[in-house]
Design goal:
The complex is a heterodimer of chains A (265) and B (155). Chain A is of the alpha/beta class and 265 residues long. Chain A has a single domain, classed as Divalent-metal-dependent TIM barrel enzymes (TIM Barrel, Alpha-Beta Barrel). Helices cover 29% and strands 18% of the residues of chain A. In chain A, helix 5 links the parallel strand 7 and strand 8. The two termini of chain A are 27 Å apart. In chain B, strands 1, 2, 3, 4, 7 and 8 form a six-stranded antiparallel β-sheet that branches. In chain B, strands 5-6 form a two-stranded antiparallel sheet. Chain B has one domain. The longest helix of chain B has 20 residues. With 155 residues, chain B is an alpha+beta fold. Helix content of chain B is 23%, strand content 39%. Chain B is built from two helices and eight strands, in the order E-H-E-E-E-E-E-H-E-E. Chains A and B meet through helix 1 and helix 2 of A and strand 3, strand 5, strand 6 and helix 2 of B.
């Protein structure tokens, strides 16, 4: 039996990952144009909207200006390797030097949007060590002239991602660098490791380095971006979320109507 | 797995009218440019996982051909209409190189057939541009996790 909403109405914002396959402006319009509510997350807000790689079209200066005119009450921010160039790039923080032209363009787009935070995936072990990743995040913050939040991953075939174990999440916390914590990624870490590090999760959520919290659900195997319908184990931890952290629902609202989500045009 | 012959005149492909028209125009523009440049075929492939897609990889036949040739593509663009409080969509003709054109074409096909392929276990797809046959064939897949259970043991 699903529980009642965990959050006050509007505490959780929509990530445009909720509308994969749409252009950025279509996704923003879909977010702002309807009432979006999830059983466990409550009424979702568009006070912050995250522009994401699952959406299409290139974020030009004109488009950024138009997005802000269309949604004057919304603060936009970029996430991960969102499309900022005509040729899509697999730019993660691990590949900061490799994809420097992409990061330079993303920093321009970030300024056009007057965004306050940029969050990015940690990336792949073949591109950087943990130490190099942390250094890249500091350099990215210099380039963007704002906090750059590192988002960790989860175990994968070939162990290809950085920040994919409880130990590495602990290292990320101890680095005191800004981070984005994806609770659905942690569910995969918990399933894979066979244990839940609730104390660490609470410590991370309550840290002032926690700038974003991402929420969706999955079966513990892959990051399926489902809308939360049943009470997850991390429900016990969310009271710890730092008041300044922006919470984004990343559940897929294009599929979500059967999974505890509601969209009214 | 979904295999689709990209024949935008066919019924039932569920393209919006605008996208159908744009894909028809762009398919012809790409295949015509390929013929003019002596390119027999190009396979465009993409993959994604972990919330991210990778750039489109292009393999041409013959392998040493130049994909920098320019062509004109119809590109969807938008303007925010302040008075109507809605987005006004239109297509503009844009000069771009063949590799950029193919990437743009792949993006539109993904939007139609494979939205969110980066989620879950991820997935990918392949488009085969055949200049001789003047066809484009599309095939996509999603990765799945398979569990190999040892069998139930009563303890």
């Amino acid at each position: 039996m699903p529980a009642k909403s965990f959050f006050e109405p509007g505490r959780v914002c929509l990530s445009l990952a909720a509308f994969p396959g749409l252009r950025h402006e279509e996704a923003a319009h879909a977010a702002a144009g309807g009432h979006h509510e999830e059983l466990l997350l409550g009424v979702l807000s568009t006070s912050h909207l995250q522009l994401v790689p699952q959406n299409f079209g290139v974020l030009t200066e004109n488009l950024c200006a138009a997005l802000q005119r269309a949604h004057p009450g919304t603060r936009f921010r970029l996430h991960a390797n969102v499309r900022v160039l005509p040729r899509h790039q697999h730019a993660d923080l691990s590949g900061f030097d490799l994809f420097l032209p992409w990061f330079i363009q993303a920093a321009k787009v970030h300024r056009w949007l007057r965004a306050e935070v940029y969050s990015a995936h940690a990336g792949r072990r073949r591109e950087a060590t943990m130490e190099q990743l942390l250094d890249n995040a500091r350099r990215a913050a210099d380039l963007f002239e704002c906090p750059v939040a590192i988002e960790g991953h989860y175990p994968s075939a070939g162990d290809q991602y950085l920040v994919a174990s409880w130990k590495e999440y602990q290292q990320l916390l101890e680095s005191r660098l800004p981070f984005a914590l994806d609770l659905s990624h942690l569910h995969i870490v918990a399933t894979s490791s066979g244990r839940i590090e609730a104390t660490l999760v609470k410590e991370m959520l309550s840290s002032d380095s926690c700038l974003e919290v991402h929420v969706s659900t999955n079966d513990g195997q892959g990051d399926q971006h489902r809308i939360c319908a049943d009470t997850p184990w991390w429900a016990d931890c969310i009271a710890s979320i730092h008041p300044h952290a922006v919470i984004f629902s990343e559940g897929n609202h294009r599929l979500g109507k059967h999974e505890g989500g509601r969209h009214v045009q | 797995m979904t295999t689709v012959q990209i024949d935008t005149e066919a019924e039932g492909l569920n393209f919006s009218d605008e996208r159908r028209r744009r894909l028809t125009l762009n398919k012809d523009a790409i295949l015509t440019a390929m013929r003019a440049a002596g390119i027999t075929s190009v396979t465009a492939s993409y993959t994604g996982e972990g919330d991210e897609g990778s750039p489109t990889d292009l393999q041409a036949e013959p392998a040493d051909v130049d994909l920098d040739v320019e062509l004109t593509m119809a590109v969807q663009t938008s303007e925010w209409d302040e008075a109507q409080r809605c987005w006004a969509w239109s297509d503009i003709e844009t000069r771009m190189t063949l590799d950029e054109a193919m990437s743009a074409f792949v993006d539109e096909v993904i939007q139609e057939y494979h939205a969110g392929f980066e989620d879950g276990e991820g997935g990918g797809g392949e488009l085969m541009f055949d200049a001789a046959a003047m066809t484009v064939t599309y095939n996509n897949f999603n990765y799945v996790v398979e569990r190999d259970y040892a069998g139930e043991i009563l303890l």
